[in-house]
Amino acid sequence: MVLSPIHFAPSAAAAILAIIITIIGRREAHKILGYGLAGFALLGLLGFFYGDWSELNSLNFHSIHAIIGIAALVTSLLPLIGKRLGIRFHCTVGRIAAVLSLVSLAMGMMILTGLVPITSPGHNLIQVQASSVLPEVEAGVFQGVSLTPISQQGNNAIEGTQVIDRDSYRLVVTGLVKRNITLTYSDILALPAYSSVVYMPCVEGWGFYAKWTGFRLSDLLDATGVTRGGDYVVFYCSDGYSTGLPLNYLIDKHTLLAYGLNDVTLPPDRGFPLQLVAESKYGYKWAKWIVRIEVVNGEVKGYWESRGYSNSGDEGSFPYG
């Protein structure tokens, strides 16, 4: 579902203008407000189609919201067109547009505030044991789920693609652990490997399904041990990015640090050598190019979290603030 500001902010503005137009009696103001409404509505529609609008393929709360929103847009434009053509029913259509806008606005607020949770299908698929030796031939299907080709997967980075040398790479684990450790890439591949299909949702509205292969963070922490008070894990990346998640979540979800994507080694732009597979979390929690892991006491705000994003990052919840 699209939770990006480029969708919901102009859409909400258009809905509010549609309601205002039906309330005020000054007809000279209708034209100005009408054009403003049309502009905001079109921006909101562009933001919707920029995101993952595959939700329209099924009938649920979110698809109904999208359909009502599109209907509100169309009916909001009709009075402007009808008046130019001399059609007299534009006032009635305007009232219908206001009602649709009000309903769409209310539904949108329920989604944004988390009253209607968003759950992507495929989250409960089984994580299976795998080999760290990847076929290096991109898979298209796994566990009955169609995988998004790597070439079609969205990607964001604060400093562009990082290129890390496999031979010189080191993963450092520090903090509230009994033993600080440093692993080479070969050490990582020696850890028990698992594969799972997990959906990566971005707050901008797009997302993709992929098969991820890697090792469980829990196996790594079993090797280091966690001292008393360690309840939060922070991931640091080569580009200066960072994010964190509760230790209990990472253990309970059998969270993977992936080096394989759709059966091929992670490409540089997808986070080689390691990307965090943060199931049921927004994409800004999916750290790439991980070079250091620190176990700490209490929550720590990462790069985007310190800039206003939610520290929980729960998919389906309001991601800002």
Write the layout of secondary structure elements.
Blueprint: H1 5-23, H2 27-50, H3 61-85, H4 90-112, E1 128-130, E2 141-142, E3 145-146, E4 171-175, E5 181-183, H5 185-189, E6 193-201, E7 207-216, H6 217-224, E8 232-237, E9 242-246, H7 247-252, E10 256-261, E11 264-265, E12 275-277, E13 290-296
Parallel strand pairs: 4-13
Antiparallel strand pairs: 1-6, 2-3, 4-5, 6-7, 7-10, 8-9, 8-13, 10-11, 10-12
Structure description:
The structure is a single chain. This protein has helices at 5-23, 27-50, 61-85, 90-112, 185-189, 217-224, 247-252; strands at residues 128-130, 141-142, 145-146, 171-175, 181-183, 193-201, 207-216, 232-237, 242-246, 256-261, 264-265, 275-277, 290-296. The strands form 3 sheets. Strands 1, 6, 7, 10, 11 and 12 form a 6-stranded antiparallel beta sheet that branches. Strands 5-4-13-8-9 form a 5-stranded mixed beta sheet. The chain contains 7 helices and 13 strands. It is of the alpha+beta class and 321 residues long.
Descriptive keywords:
321 residues; elongated; 5-stranded mixed beta sheet; Sulfite Oxidase, Chain A, domain 2; alpha+beta; 2 domains
Number of strands: 13
Order of helices and strands: HHHHEEEEEHEEHEEHEEEE
Q: What is the arithmetic mean of pLDDT?
A: 83
How much beta, percentage-wise? 15-25%
CATH H-level homologous superfamily name of the largest domain: Oxidoreductase, molybdopterin-binding domain
Low-pLDDT segments, ≥5 res: none
Radius of gyration: 24 Å
CATH topology of the largest domain: Sulfite Oxidase, Chain A, domain 2
